[in-house]
Design a protein that fits this description.
mainly alpha
Length: 131
């Protein structure tokens, strides 16, 4: 479940974050007696089935429940902020499609290119409140 190199802006998804979990060989800061100073303790109450599912998922991935929940929260924040990997792919695909279509229209139908751009701008204003 390690997502290092995935572009996440959150540090706990990095390799070797020093979090202990059952069966892990500790090589991070905790093995040297250091404390984690960049985290804040937050207590959360979860319904039993969600807590059980979180425990099972953490055990199956050989990570701590805390790390599993941190990663889940980070991914949720990425998703709602529009910066998830899936959102970036969608944005890229959308831009690529627009550019390809624009190039085709410019070359094959130059007489309507400006009219199409003007209509697109008008629709942006009407449907989205601005261009």
């Amino acid at each position: 479940m390690n997502t290092a190199g995935s572009g996440s802006r959150f540090p706990c998804q990095a390799i070797g974050d020093g979090l202990k979990h059952p069966g892990a060989i500790s090589t991070g800061p905790f093995s040297k007696g250091l404390v984690m100073t960049e985290t804040v303790l937050i207590s959360v109450r979860l319904p039993g089935p969600i807590a059980e599912a979180a425990n099972a998922a953490a055990v199956s991935r050989n990570i701590s429940r805390s790390k599993l929940l941190r990663i889940a929260i980070e991914r949720f924040i990425d998703d709602i902020s529009g910066s998830s990997e899936q959102d970036r792919r969608r944005q890229f695909s959308s831009e690529y499609t627009f550019l390809a279509l624009d190039l085709i229209v410019q070359r094959e139908y130059p007489e309507v290119h400006t009219e199409l751009l003007t209509e697109a701008e008008r629709r942006m204003e009407a449907f989205h409140g601005g261009a």
